[in-house]
Amino acid sequence: MKTNQVVTRFAPSPTGFMHVGGVRTALYAWLFARKNGGKFILRIEDTDKEREVQGSIEHIMKSLKWLGIEWNEGPDIGGPNAPYIQSERKASHQKYAQQLIDKGLAYADPYTEEEVEGFRKQAEEAKKPFLYRDYRPENPPVWDGSQPLRLKIVDPKESHWHDLVRGDLSAGPEALDDFVIIKSDGYPTYNFAHIIDDLEMGVTHIMRSDEFISSTPKYLALYEALGIERPEFVMLPPIMGADGKKKLGKRDGAKDAMDYQREGYLPQALMNFLAFIGWNPGGEKEVFTPQELIEEFSIERIHTSGGKFNEEKLKWFNKEHLKLMLEDAQKEYIRPAVVGLNVTQDAGRIERSLLSTLERISYSGEVAGLLENGELNYLRDEIVLDPALIAWKQSTQQDAYNHLGVVLDKLAGVPSITQAFTDDLLAYATEHGKGNVLWPLRYVLSGSQKSPDPFTLLTILEKEEAVKRIEAGRTQLAGIL
Ligand code: GLU
Predict the structure, then answer these.
(1) How far, in Å, from the CA of 208 to the mean position of ligand 1?
(2) Active-site residue (options: 250, 323, 410, 434)
(3) Interstrand relation of 159-163 and 167-171 (parallel, antiparallel or unpaired)
(4) Phi and psi based region of residue 238 (left: phi greater than 0; alpha: psi -120 to 50; beta: remaining)
(5) Pairing relation of β-strands 106-108 and 149-151?
(6) Which of 22, 101, 251, 375 could form a disulfide with 370 if both were Cys (CB 3.0 to 4.6 A apart)?
(7) How far is the C-alpha of 76 from the C-alpha of 111, rounded, in Å?
């Protein structure tokens, strides 16, 4: 029964690495299915056994789940078109291969590697491109499963097809040769297997990287030979490195999706960022929740040219998505990174520092750097002061000593640090020169030349600890006065 339901799929090979480019392919296929109330299938293409890496399937699923890309059918949850692991679908592949043999459209390849090499040399000497079909055996042996099985291109012609992103495309007859559909190890090639799987799974729209454009004539030849209708093709533009010159590859720093999870990026930020490499909905708005992306997504707005992978932009997206979160969720997000610094036993201090720390980062992986550059030094249970650094530039050490004394007196007069207290302190500082008062205070509270402002520090440290640190600062100053 044929329905008009949109069915897309993500068909990664289990090679151990979930490249962000692959994630974007999955994302577009998922967005398009969700937008149209359709189905999104996860299928693992593992027929190239030499490239397979143990644990990859779990890794792929974990990455997609982290991003919130959920599938309707897949290896873990099954579905009406199970199995979803390509190597377990051999029976189907064999069935269709047999149909091609029966129609005289596939044949066993009897040649050894050396013989094929010989043909290649002959072609080279004749200054012709090597095409296997020029050397096709006249009476191929009966296929016994041990020889490669090749598709017979009976009528090499121009290929024409329509791509929903790139429009009408074509390729000359030289793009078509008798290619292998079942290898001598019994496994189908990707070229053949995916056609059968897509057919049996009812896939309506094939979204994949545009590096598959050059193989599309082969797929068309198979659709024709098998007498099946072509699905829609949606070729996605490449993801380029930050310089825009080369495709983003592992060697240029392309990371695994889960690296971003480890570094503390929000999945919704990575999703938003990836969605915008190669697509945008038009207009000024850039920050989209997953639900908004689903609502806005359309194939018409996928770009034909490559988009840049710019990590600075990803940081920006992360920061923007952090701002969309409720305060409790923001705290939950940043807490493990601050706790992980392991610099204080004081849980209350950590808790009160969270929002201030969040303001200083774009993703939680940056928290450790804040400790290194001194900005979080104030969190430590023990801070070390350099008395020479306590006084503000235009002010004397005696002034610093005196102002800190006034702050101590003011603190002695209040039970805790309130807005009224900080207002009063600000008024005092304004009167006496802000730097003269606030710099020494900030430095003795934090032990660092970089820190949050002294009002924030007072609120985070609270009265008792603040008094202790100011007194320690004054003692040190007294020693050099
Ligand atoms: N298994 C192919 C790959 O990982 C999938 C290509 C496709 O989507 O058809 O590159």
Answers:
(1) 7
(2) 250
(3) antiparallel
(4) beta
(5) antiparallel
(6) 375
(7) 40
